[in-house]
Amino acid sequence: MAVGLVGATGLVGRSILQALEQQRFPVGELRLWAGRRSAGRRLPFRGRRIRARELGPSEFAGCRLVFFSGTEGEKGASRAFARAAIDAGAVVIDNGADYRMEPWVPLVVPEVNPGDLKGHRGLIANPNCSTIQLVAALAPVHRRLGLKRIVVSTYQSVSGAGRAGLETLRDEMQNAKCRNQNPAFDRPIAGNVIPQIGDFGDSGYTAEEWKMVHETRKILHDSRITVNATAVRVPVEVGHAESIYFETGEKASLGRLERLLSRAPGVVFSKNGYHTPAEIAGRDQVFVSRLRADPQNPRAFSLWCVADNLRKGAAANAVQIAWLLYKNRMIN
Amino acid sequence: MAVGLVGATGLVGRSILQALEQQRFPVGELRLWAGRRSAGRRLPFRGRRIRARELGPSEFAGCRLVFFSGTEGEKGASRAFARAAIDAGAVVIDNGADYRMEPWVPLVVPEVNPGDLKGHRGLIANPNCSTIQLVAALAPVHRRLGLKRIVVSTYQSVSGAGRAGLETLRDEMQNAKCRNQNPAFDRPIAGNVIPQIGDFGDSGYTAEEWKMVHETRKILHDSRITVNATAVRVPVEVGHAESIYFETGEKASLGRLERLLSRAPGVVFSKNGYHTPAEIAGRDQVFVSRLRADPQNPRAFSLWCVADNLRKGAAANAVQIAWLLYKNRMIN
Fold first, then answer.
1. Residue (of A204, A258, A254) closest to A230 by Cα position
2. Chain B interface test: which of A276, A280, A297, A305 (most B C-beta within 10 Å)
């Protein structure tokens, strides 16, 4: 199968290459594209080094599957080129935010809503990193007990802002004064935390916070869930953490919740102890710990959820979608 | 006035010395005490250098005021020595956690519950750092509108764990492998976040999380407020941040909340923009920003709250208590 990857030289692009290898996706021909400045670079795949070319609308001929990899919040190349790829007969899996909320576009976490792929119209959206781990953890709860309310505060790593985010943190940590000419963040991030991810939008919430509201409702098919999010950048290279408080529709014991989470697909649940971003970077699962009942509310619980934002939050989820499409013969 | 300071060489102890100078507290004689390993060190105060001696129960004679400075969660010297200081005629202001929840002990944030100092019995407790900034921000809301529920996730700096916390972070940042023989945290903190502060206790909540529940209720005189806390350590040197979601008893407009917070004593409220820990380290106020209404619940709001944990979270609050006692002739 001819597979294409737009944005191959970015952090998520490289992570998609790794995920295609590790998940043994049946790639025949592989075509890589990059922006003007990065075109020409060679990237490793199955022991070869493949040159990334500059993208143009006629490049998609013969591709059956094309990944568009934008990082968190980025307006991607998909607005400009996804239509050309679809018209050329490819199925597009878009990691960017451009199409996620379009009604005709499935927004899919394979463990949660694989059925949404049915009848797709050529483009599947990969959800935002912070949404993926949230819904992976809470979908089994939603299915069995209902979910009324989510209050989530995030601890998001700088790689969510792409290579510029990583370089900004590394530069700042090496220099008392930031030598980075174009820092990825509005304030110093080394030795600091910044309560803004994306632009400020309606009602004082940021773009990242609204994504968690709208995408969660779309993926869980439940527009009544209230999601109150605060998205915060922390000086961590890879791995997003989330402190999640939630209220169920039905009363449930802590033991019931523990059983639901320990059987949740794609979730590693620890009843004791906890996970931190540094420990789980490089892994594809969503890690849930510190599940506890609210002593004051029989329908409320808290948990701590960590995932690698480049893997399950982006590349691994995208390649899982590709596998689902392939197995279900949804690729032409 | 003869003033004593137990734990003078610690981070909070040194911060109390600074606060006594900066708040121009009427210190006549100053006696400093430290643990065995730190006794003998000389500390700067008003241009002199004063030697810290080892503490013994007969050291308090003549002291009218004694500060006990423990860091976050530490079992302090106050259990061993506070009674001797009180019996010697001193009023004790204890930064440690040992006495905070004793019914006879006032737990005071001067902007919030100064009246609790009346009829004190010789010992006043300084609340936990993460509680002080929470109640300073929310007390005006509680007073005018009532507070039903608080859901808070913290971003707490390593200095909350004292000098050992600071040194652990600095060591880890200089070395890929931690050379610190006794790291202050159970996991690496550089480039990481750790969802545990204090030991795990009842129901899976940590000691730090329970402090925020019990101390908030005690300070606000309202045992019906539900507080759900998640306390997280982040790789920041000084300054704690909190993502706070709260529900009021009465409905209120965002404008009403903005007016309440902009008039709140000791609070710097920013209607636009936000504060980060690195910016406000060294300042004595509580900084509140990102106030927003929950679009889905007319009684719910969110805000972002930052304060210097060594200053308003510890030393500055303790010296403010001392001033209140002094002005109200509550020191013998």
1. A204
2. A276
